[in-house]
Amino acid sequence: MISQGESSGILFTKNGVLFHIVFPALLPYFLSPLLSRRLCDGRVKCFFSEGYVAIVIDNVYQTLTKSEPFLQTRTQLPLHAETGLQIKGVAGSLMAALTAFLFEHLQQQVLLIVPGRDEAEKLCDDCALFLRGTKVHAYTYAPHHQGTVLDMSAPIARIEALKALASDEPVVVVSSAEALVGKAPPPATIQERSFVVAAGKEYPFENLLKRLAELGFERKDFVEGYGDMAVRGGILDLFPFVGEYPVRLEFWGDRLESVREFNPLSQRSIRELQQANIVANLADGSGTDGGFSSGSLLDYLGQQALLIVHEPVLLEREVEELVREGVEAIVDWQNISKGISRFSRIIHSNLTSSGVESAIDFRAQSQPVVQGSIKVLTKHLQKLLDNGFDLFLTCDTNEEGERIRELIDEELRQRS
C-alpha cells in the first residue's frame, strides 16, 4: 500500500504486475508509450479509460479480500470486547479496504478511528470508493480553543454521521482523534431535535410552524443563516442546522408538493430534493457546555458495533496536544479508552505490535518519499522494473499526467 503527499492509494502486485493506484482521484492519465519504450521495453503501460481503472481497482479489492491476512481476520469474527484483535502492517488505503471488507461481512456499524483529520477524510473517501459511495460518513472537525463550545451546527458531515448512528443504521464512520474526544449532545437530542419531511406527504402546516418555533427556529422576512425561517403563503423557507443551503418547502394545503435547496442571496433554486433533514441547533439547551453533555461519538454506537483503532499511541498524543493547546470542551482520554473497551475492536499498530506474536501481519509497504523529485521517482520506477514488475501509474488530472510525463521523459533523456 502507499501513502504519499496529498494522496493515498494502493501498491499491489499480481502475476508480476505492479499496480500503483491513487485514491480518491481516479482519472487514469498514464505515462505515454514513448516513455514506456524508453524506460524499459514497453513494460510501463498506458491506458486512458476510466472504466478500465475502475475495473482494475475492483479486481485489486476482490483479490485483497481473498488474501491470507483478510481471511485470517475474518475467521476471528465475531470478536469479544474483553480481548479484541491485534493487527499490524497496514498502510495507506489498505486500511480503507480492510474497513470496507469488514463492513460488508458484518453488515453492522463500523467505526474507524485514526489520529489526524486529513487522514480521516482521505480514508473516508477511500471507504466510499470501495463501498460505492453508500453508508460512509466522516466525523471530523478543527479543534476549538479557550473553552469555546464545539459547534455541532457547522460541520454538516458530523451531524449526518450522528443521525445515521442514532437511527442504528449499519454504516461506516471514520473519525479523527480530535473529533472522537469532542463533546457531543446525547443521542436522544438528535431524535428530539430533528425530523425528515418528504415531498408528496402531508404535514399539518400550522402544526409544522409551531414545531419549528418550539425547536428554536426564528421567523424572519427572509432566511439568512442557520435557524431562520420565513413564510409566504404556502411556501416555507428554512435554514436547518445541516446542509450548505436553506430549503424551500412548497405546500398545497397540508400536502408538501416540492422540496428544493435554494441560494439565500439570489433566491434561485439549486436542486430539487425528495426529502429534507430538518435539524435544529443541537447545542441549544440549558445544560453545561451550551447544552452538551460529557458524552461523545461512542454513545451513539450500537452494542454490536466494531471499532478499528489505528495507532492508539498516536491517538493519545493527539488528545494530549489538544489539552496543551487549551481545548476544554473535550472528553478526557481515560474515559474514551474505557468507552472503546466496551466494544468489539481491532487494534492496529506498527509502533507497539512488533513484539506481539499473535498480531495478524498484513505486510503492507509505505510508498517511498520522493519529495517532489522526478529524479528520485524515476530511479524508484527503474528499480521496480529491474525487479521484474510492470508498472501502471495514475495522476489526479490530465494536466498533471502530461507534466509528469514530460519531466520523466526529460530525466530519461539526460541519462541516455
Notes on the structure:
By secondary structure, this protein is of the alpha/beta class. It has 13 helices and 20 strands. It has helices at residues 33-40, 50-65, 68-75, 94-106, 117-130, 156-166, 177-180, 187-192, 205-214, 312-324, 333-340, 374-386, 398-415; strands spanning 2-4, 7-14, 17-23, 44-45, 85-88, 110-114, 136-139, 172-176, 194-198, 218-219, 228-232, 235-238, 247-252, 255-262, 269-273, 275-279, 306-310, 344-348, 360-361, 390-392. The strands form four sheets. Strands 7-8-6-17-18-5-19 form a seven-stranded parallel beta sheet, sandwiched between helices. Strand 13 and strand 14 (255-262) form a beta hairpin. The longest helix has 18 residues, at 398-415. It is globular and about 75 Å long. The model is unreliable at 1-49, 145-154 and 285-292 (pLDDT under 50).
Can you describe this structure in just a few lines?
The chain is of the alpha/beta class and 416 residues long. The chain contains 13 helices and 20 strands. Strands 7-8-6-17-18-5-19 form a seven-stranded parallel sheet, sandwiched between helices.
